[in-house]
What we know:
This protein is mainly α. It is built from 30 helices and no strands. The chain is globular, with a radius of gyration of 26 Å. The relative contact order is 0.11.
Amino acid sequence: MTYTPDSATKTVSPKFDETAIPSNLRSADRMQPRPVLWLITVVAISLSLFQLYTAGIKPLGLFYQRTAHLGFVLFLAFLIFPAFGQSRSRGALGWIIDAVCLTAAFLSGFYIIWYLDDIIARAGWWTPMDITVGIICILAVLEASRRAVGLGMTIIGTVAILYALAGPRGALPGLGEWMPGVLSHRGASVDRLVGQLYLGQEGIFGLPLGVAATFVFMFVLFGAFLEKTGAGKFFIDLAFAATGRKPGGPAKAAVIASAGMGSISGSAIANVVTTGAFTIPLMKRLGYKPKQAGGIEAAASTGGQITPPLMGAGAFLISEYTQVPYIEIVLVSIFPAILYLGTVYLFVHIVAMKQNMRGMSPAELPIVRNVLKAGWQFIVPLVLLVWLLVNNISPMRVGFWAIMAVIGVAGLRGLWAVVFDGPLTGARVQASVMRGVRMIFESLELGARNAVAVSIACAVAGIIVGVVGLTGLGLKFSSMMVSLSGGNIVAALALVLIASLILGLGLPVTASYIVLIVLVGPALHNEFGIPLLIAHLVVFWYSQDSNVTPPVALAAFAGAAVAGSKPMETSVQAWKFAKGLYLIPLFMVFNPEIIYGGPLPHVLWTGFTAILGLAAFAAAIEGYLFTWMDKLSRLLALPAVAALFWPDFRIEVAGAGVLLVLLAINWLNAREQRRAAS
């Protein structure tokens, strides 16, 4: 029932080995007693089955769905991640702490379910038990965040709570005296804050967790089913078959395969360690420096998070915040994603040409026909997924049917193998059925495990969003942003970029996006006039920059670990290759036609200038396109690229003309050099 890589390759080549991938979960598992591992499996499978039931059979109400999801996720987090770290056994003290935390997880999720009617009837007149359980839940979420997401997220959530309590009418009036005037507020009592964060719809159980408990979980589970059936190897083999013979083939394959893996993984880091385990050694073998190989993989894997049809949790959140159907988010994101991946691909090509690299030999590469023959089943669920989205089916229901499609085509594939690939015996039938059942349960467990971190991050983000709504911080932050930027839209976008980088030091991408859009989204839309959807896309793209931007570039650090290079050098390379991540959002702002459309000539001109500008920028940075560029050409190219972003048609035309002349001169020089060499 799984994709078999050996059937698609002609010779022995480096294998995609998922067991070799570094994983926090696997290192934690090695220290877990067997009964705990069994309990983790049971809870994880139960969570996945609960999600499947509510997605495809009987949907539940808002509080029932979100509170049950949180209870399961917290319980799973405290089982998987021990109190004192993953490399140590729990010990007696650890078990006592974890027993308390597991009890808190159960109370957090199921107290509201049990007493929901009474809580609604009280409508703000909370009992001491309500407040006590609310405090327990908030502490449990912060502790789970420390274990599963990182200390940075926990600190930011704690600071948000302290900020809400600070003020003359708050529980911490003394702390309010230290607040600058623009940030001061009257403060909230403990009861009011707990009511906001736990007993209402604007805190922990708000929109971020709601998206995680419905859409995101289903697509994470869908990715787990694809992973367990071998889709990762299929996409990598397909990319190598398409580009492996070209100069720098493995690097180009990494760009394409990472876009494909974006349909499976919700994490750029996971993309790096899965795709990179195969592509980085081949890049090094063909002549790429280790830091270049790691940087290319990090930049390409980051592109997987902005590539349709699945774009991580952020795309679902954009849809919910803007009330734009998810399929429209997907459609308008296609061209920007192509621009980004095309820019990375061009950087890779230029580096290969500068170093006179060659592609891999045909004997080392998979055959397209064999790859498709062995893995066609992975295309069917993706086609079904897109078709259902186009027909305006709920993304949660789409995820359910996509999972059913994976199980169905994998079962048909297994049935075909049993009937036609050998003698039809009872032993072979039994073995095939057991493989299928094991694959289903492993996928259910893996999907739940993979969803733990993002769900907890969304719960903490809900705390931050709740505090922003309670204190009015969003309006104050917007005023600060307008003041600091002087009303200049470029300066405002630069501030957003800096803020996203700072937040990225301690927050995962999804949480960074939520915090940023809550704080700066109103200013970008209301004060600077950026259309709502574009404002969200800009913040979503900029929230990815912590993966590739020094000094803390998480995806680049993962690439450095695989490549055996220095983390900082690798992150600098990733930052260079991922330049489209910073330029394309700017282009969206000043040329909204590439998102919203318009008259055909205008749209075509906008698309042409975007491609021309990114290609010229890559050439100017590397000093090479068709051949080496002289210093004057590189110097003239940069202001000409900036002219393409200018909201004046005459300046755009002038910039495009300069770039076309420079690139034409470079092409003529390359032709003369080839003619002289021959």
